[in-house]
């Protein structure tokens, strides 16, 4: 019995130790999920009900929050959500004045100081808490607070946010001063101009939270003494007034504006020119902007990227931020936080701007602790417009599905906006010295050179009529600003498309003649709508050259510059995610005038906009496929015939025919999912896992959550003018130290109560996750006794969201510090003296005890001595008695 019990305990111990390993699911080939079925549902409340019941797992549309939804998001444990930050609200002001020429009425907002003062009048925190219900962030600048540009400018942004924080009385004082200068009178609580009330015509959008925002701002204006006419207009009704109308007509003063950015932007240098100057748009409003000449010059330089170094750019951005607030033709209010909801039973990554609309979301979708399984997903719309590989739908709802079916050379990091290699392996960038670009990725090596020469045999163009490549040498092109060398690895003949065919060099090349044919007026593929994009591409792209095919290495020569070298690479490095033979049947259909790739050409030709997944296009494409099989059709045969034979073409077409027979559509990609079913009538679509996909399902698991660092500050015990002060900063993520190698920078600011920056600098790492910020004697020497704020701004290399933290600290006078030191020393001395006295007392006690012991011993000695004397006397007596003569034995007395 004992041995059986021991064996059972051993088995239980082993089982407990290996249980986590058994529960951890090994990665699959391709995505984690076997199937994702999409259906249409516009009401997020209904989707929340389905998610809570387990009837749905993900909603691939952002949720527009009302009070009921906000409450449920907080309370329902079955529903989780992630955020995106791409939508933002502002107040747009009419700058014409001081009087409107057409009406003669006063426009208070023609004054830049009045517009600037509106930053104090609006309580952004109130809008965040009471109107947006916490689903937004206060916004002061035309930079999204969760994006890299804001992080780079965080030092300036935080300072300005402190300086322009809500202060109604300060704003009122400025506005009253300016109104008086413009000739207005304030009496009985109202402003008058030339005897008439000053009426503010306020265009308020009623479709979303801007209605409540508009009402709040109108209330604030009425507190200032203005008469406000609240003009509730939808987008369609308001646009002819504020956007297309002449602002000099005086039809409006303020408009509740809204804007959206659909991806994490890493370069917003043109935002100041767009939002504050005539550079932005040809609209009458933009052309009425008259910024300060210094601001206009800075905005123009940023617009044209007229700077030589990144440091110079940052200096211009900082100046522009300050001047933008002085101008304030727009007063920014909030960056909206848009929830994207999903079940607690699943996990997936969300882009900080695009939410679940990013390519990475479906690539990371999985059940918690489970490999495989089916997902039920919903969107506001499903299958909106035709899909084709050249000029098809541009709807986000469609592209959520399309991106899942296509591989890519690079994916965009959902938290930083930087490209990440998916099919590409690495890249080298050679840029002319002085170009303002940097690389922060291991896969992208940046080298500055004196000259970038374009090889004479590099491909510059394509002669559509002759059917041949035009080289750079023939075009007389010899130099470029940048050379990009991309290594794609050993992919030719290795990567499979969904129909079972394998990638070849022909798949890489077909796009080259097609690009030029679509802008050649003599080609049956000519499309007027393709000209603008081609012109922009031609100005930036110089040439390309295939250096080797195993591994595949391609050189790209361009004249386009981005701050991030990675974006230069990703902008021009291609990937053939749609096979040439599937593209060919569409080319054949357009050449015959039966279908058109673009909606514009389809309208002009009175034919259907080509659709590879539904509608009448399918029959036409099927016919083109049969014809292609019969003739061994090779598009652009003079060129493409060098890379594919007629027999190879027929084999490809047969594979596509088998695919169509099974799937009932022609959409063939190489992505982690393939389109299994598409129904335009029912608005449903089903994606299934591509188990031939090169990547394992766990490749992007590290992106499931944005690793935003959390900051904590440990101020010193005392900060004294003229002495060093050391602040300790702890950076962590989920309770663990944040790796120092993944931190871009840790900066600190010391501010007074008014928000003035008195000291700043960069912290230095002292241990993993621990940084120290040192205030020098020169720094502390600027501080007078009182309360201050120590602010930390830390930016990770892995996420665009900066971590910021503030901690109060007190500066004490030098006298107080030295008094404290003296008091401390005195206390220490007193403590030590008390210790000595205590020791002396103990010694005295011990001496007393010793004396008592000695007295006791003395008594004992005296007693012993007395006994000894008595003993001695007895001994002497005994000796004397022993000396007397004794009797003999015969003299004994006998009785008769």
From TrEMBL:
GO terms for biological process: peptide transport. It comes from the Archaea. This is ABC transporter substrate-binding protein. Belongs to the bacterial solute-binding protein 5 family. The keyword Transmembrane applies. GO terms for molecular function: peptide transmembrane transporter activity. It holds the Pfam family SBP_bac_5. Keywords: Membrane, Signal, Transmembrane, Transmembrane helix, Transport. It comes from Thermofilum pendens. The lineage of its organism: Archaea, Thermoproteota, Thermoprotei, Thermofilales, Thermofilaceae. The chain crosses the membrane at residues 864-883. The keyword Amino-acid biosynthesis does not apply. Residues 31-264 form the Solute-binding protein family domain. InterPro entries: SBP_5, SBP_5_dom. PANTHER family: OLIGOPEPTIDE-BINDING PROTEIN APPA, PERIPLASMIC BINDING COMPONENT OF ABC TRANSPORTER.
């Amino acid at each position: 019995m004992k041995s059986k019990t021991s064996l059972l305990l051993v088995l239980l111990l082993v089982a407990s130790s290996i249980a986590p390993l058994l529960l951890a699911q090994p990665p699959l080939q391709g995505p984690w999920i076997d199937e994702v079925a999409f259906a249409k549902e516009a009401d997020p409340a209904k989707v929340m009900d389905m998610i809570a019941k387990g009837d749905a797992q993900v909603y691939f549309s952002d949720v527009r929050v009302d009070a009921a939804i906000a409450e449920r998001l907080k309370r329902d444990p079955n529903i989780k959500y992630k955020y995106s930050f791409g939508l933002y609200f502002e107040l747009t002001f009419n700058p014409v004045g001081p009087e409107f020429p057409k009406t003669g009425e006063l426009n208070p907002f023609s004054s830049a100081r009045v517009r600037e003062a509106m930053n104090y009048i609006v309580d952004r925190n109130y809008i965040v808490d009471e109107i947006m219900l916490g689903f937004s962030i206060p916004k002061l600048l035309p930079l999204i607070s969760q994006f890299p540009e804001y992080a780079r400018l965080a030092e300036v942004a935080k300072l300005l946010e402190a300086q322009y924080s809500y202060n109604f009385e300060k704003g009122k004082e400025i506005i009253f001063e300016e109104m008086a200068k413009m000739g207005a009178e304030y009496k009985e609580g109202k402003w008058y101009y030339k005897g008439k009330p000053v009426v503010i015509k306020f265009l308020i959008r009623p479709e979303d939270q801007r209605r409540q925002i508009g009402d709040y701002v109108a209330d604030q204006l009425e507190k200032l003494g203005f008469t406000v006419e609240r003009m509730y207009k939808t987008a369609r009704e308001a646009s002819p007034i504020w956007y297309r109308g002449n602002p000099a007509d005086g039809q409006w003063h303020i408009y509740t504006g809204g804007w959206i950015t659909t991806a994490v932007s890493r370069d917003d240098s043109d935002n100041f020119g767009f939002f504050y100057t005539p550079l932005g748009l040809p609209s009458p409003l933009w052309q009425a902007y008259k910024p300060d000449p210094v601001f206009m010059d800075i905005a123009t330089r940023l617009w044209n990227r007229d700077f030589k170094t990144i440091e110079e750019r940052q200096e211009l951005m900082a100046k522009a931020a300050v001047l933008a607030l002085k101008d304030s033709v727009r007063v920014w209010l909030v960056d909206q936080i848009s929830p994207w909801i999903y079940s607690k039973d699943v996990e997936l990554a969300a882009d900080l701007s695009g939410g679940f609309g990013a390519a990475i979301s479906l690539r990371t979708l999985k059940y918690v602790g489970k490999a495989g399984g089916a997902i039920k997903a919903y969107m506001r719309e499903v299958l909106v417009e035709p899909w084709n590989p050249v000029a098809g739908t541009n709807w986000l709802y469609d592209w959520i599905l399309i991106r899942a079916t296509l591989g890519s050379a690079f994916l965009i990091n959902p938290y930083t906006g930087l490209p990440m290699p998916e099919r590409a392996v690495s890249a080298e960038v050679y840029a002319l010295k002085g170009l303002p670009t940097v690389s922060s990725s291991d896969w992208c090596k940046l080298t500055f050179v004196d000259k970038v020469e374009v090889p004479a045999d590099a491909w510059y163009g394509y002669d559509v009529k002759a059917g041949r490549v035009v080289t750079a040498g023939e075009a007389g092109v010899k130099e470029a600003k940048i050379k990009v060398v991309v290594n794609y690895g050993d992919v030719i003949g290795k990567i499979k498309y969904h129909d079972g065919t394998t990638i070849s060099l022909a798949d890489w090349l077909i796009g080259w003649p097609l690009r030029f044919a679509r802008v050649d007026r003599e080609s049956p593929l000519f499309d007027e709508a393709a000209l603008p994009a081609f012109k922009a591409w031609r100005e930036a792209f110089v040439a390309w050259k295939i250096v080797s095919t195993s591994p595949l290495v391609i050189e790209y020569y361009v004249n386009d510059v981005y701050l991030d070298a990675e974006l230069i690479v990703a902008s021009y490095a291609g990937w053939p995610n749609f096979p040439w033979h599937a593209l060919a049947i569409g080319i054949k259909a357009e050449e015959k005038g039966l279908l058109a790739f673009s909606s514009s050409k389809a309208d002009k030709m009175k034919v259907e906009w080509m659709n590879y997944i539904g509608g009448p296009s399918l029959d036409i494409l099927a016919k083109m496929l049969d014809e292609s099989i019969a003739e061994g059709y090779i598009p652009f045969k003079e060129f493409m015939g060098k890379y594919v034979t007629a027999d190879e073409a027929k084999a490809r077409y047969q594979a596509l025919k088998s695919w169509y027979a099974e799937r009932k559509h022609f959409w063939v990609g190489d992505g982690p999912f393939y389109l299994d079913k598409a129904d335009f009538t029912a608005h449903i679509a089903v994606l299934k896992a591509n188990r031939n996909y090169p990547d394992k399902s766990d490749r992007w698991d590290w992106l499931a959550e944005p690793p935003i660092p959390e900051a904590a500050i440990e101020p010193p015990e005392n900060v004294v003018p003229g002495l060093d002060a050391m602040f300790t900063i702890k950076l962590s993520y989920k309770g663990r130290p944040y790796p120092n190698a993944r931190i871009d920078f840790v900066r600190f600011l010391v501010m007074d109560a008014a928000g003035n920056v008195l000291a700043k600098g960069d912290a230095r790492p002292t241990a993993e996750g621990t940084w120290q910020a040192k205030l020098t004697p020169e720094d502390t020497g600027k501080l007078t006794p009182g309360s201050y704020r120590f602010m930390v701004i830390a930016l990770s290399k892995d996420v665009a969201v900066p971590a910021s933290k503030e901690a109060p600290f007190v500066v004490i006078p030098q006298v107080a510090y030295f008094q404290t030191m003296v008091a401390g020393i005195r206390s220490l001395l007193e403590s030590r003296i008390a210790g000595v006295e205590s020791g002396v007392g103990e010694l005295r006690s011990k001496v007393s005890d010793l004396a008592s012991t000695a007295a006791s011993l003395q008594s004992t000695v005296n007693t012993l001595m007395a006994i000894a004397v008595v003993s001695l006397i007895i001994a002497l007596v005994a000796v004397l008695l022993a000396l007397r003569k004794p009797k003999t034995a015969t003299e004994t007395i006998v009785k008769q």
